[in-house]
Design goal:
single chain; mainly alpha
Length: about 150
């Protein structure tokens, strides 16, 4: 009996893959850091296996992002037109972020649609961004950006 993955699990998996590839980290290296096989990392990234809370926290620490990063860009709420229920009274965000050096406000803007997420997941995009930031001279970087923009406008 075929089962389909939950859209939230697929989204979280895509965000894991995005951050891992942005860091230039292999599935094997991520798995080793978490005490997992690369096959388990693949299953998480495809959304086949659900990521538990403690594992998500471990992923956030290893990938150096807040836990909220994995949910950025997720439609509110998935599969429903009803707003998410508010938490119990008196529950609030922690005053100090737990782990990671990237604050929620420092995160890149979430992908606005699945096409944006797919674009940032492509190896070519990541190589281009790495090469761009490898250019030390800021004026040369600016000229490269202007050149690429002019080519894209054709």
């Amino acid at each position: 009996m075929p089962t389909t993955s939950n859209p939230v699990d697929v989204h979280v998996g895509n965000r894991i893959r995005l951050r891992r590839t942005l860091l230039g980290m292999s599935q094997e290296r991520l798995g080793n850091a978490l005490g997992l096989t690369f096959q388990q990392v693949q299953k998480y990234e495809r959304g086949c296996n659900r990521v538990g809370a403690s594992r998500l926290y471990d992923l956030a620490c290893v990938l150096d992002v807040p836990v909220a990063f994995f949910f950025a860009g997720l439609p509110d709420p998935v599969g429903s037109m009803e707003p998410c229920p508010s938490g119990p009274e008196g529950v609030s965000e922690p005053a100090v972020p737990l782990g990671g050096s990237m604050a929620v406000g420092d995160m890149p803007p979430p992908a606005t649609n699945t096409g944006d997420l797919a674009l940032f997941s492509r190896r070519e995009t990541i190589e281009l961004v790495r090469a761009y930031y490898g250019i030390e001279d800021s004026s040369t970087r600016r000229r490269v950006l202007d050149l690429v923009r002019s080519m894209g406008a054709c």
